[in-house]
Amino acid sequence: MSIPEVGDPAPDFTLPGMIVRDGTRTDDEYALSAVIGRTLVLAFYPGDATPVCTAQLCSYQEELDGFDDLGAVVWGVSPQALDSHEAFARGSSLTLPLLSDTAGDAIRAYGVQAPGIGLRRSVFVIGPDGVIRWRHVGLVGLRFPKAETIRQQIELLVA
After folding, report:
1. How many distinct helices (H) and strands (E) make up the chain?
2. Would the pLDDT of 50 be above 90?
3. Could you tell me which residues are beta bridge partners of residue 77?
4. For the chain, what is the radius of gyration of the CA atoms?
5. Structure confidence by residue, pLDDT tens digits, 110-135
6. CA-CA distance, 80 to 89, in Å (whole number)?
7. 37 contact partners, CB below 8 Å, separation of at least 6
8. Is residue 53 flagged as an active site residue?
9. What's residue 45's pLDDT?
10. Which of 101, 107, 142, 102 lies closest to 124 in space, CA to CA?
11. Hey, what domains does the chain have and what are their CATH numbers?
12. Which is catalytic among the residues 53, 57, 147, 154?
């Protein structure tokens, strides 16, 4: 599938995910349709506990309160299973939901699959109306948008 453009409705999905807070893992289902009305930062990343993914998600973790103050939620999505996500979250002190797309359904729906590497490191800012308002899709996956850049995009939505 092709990558949705800014202004397109965000493809809906429901994925299993988990979050570690206060040392406790909580599993849940995460659906785009359930967060309509809030801004969603959807961060696709290739793998748990890899150096670039760790740097990316840790930088977003540092800005989590700032995103929350703007009414935005942040979800990480990768093809690893929930147990892998749990180890990554605990090892990197991540408290944002990590979603497991082992079948690649959301990865394909957002057009970010990449032969050989699994998926392209990508971030989509989805407005409260369910429309894609900003996106960054990496070609090789070594670079990622800074949390400050994403925050600026969210601020444009709430201005």
Report:
1. 5, 9
2. no
3. 44, 99
4. 14
5. 999 887 767 888 899 999 999 999 99
6. 12
7. 128
8. yes
9. 87
10. 107
11. 14-153 (3.40.30.10)
12. 53
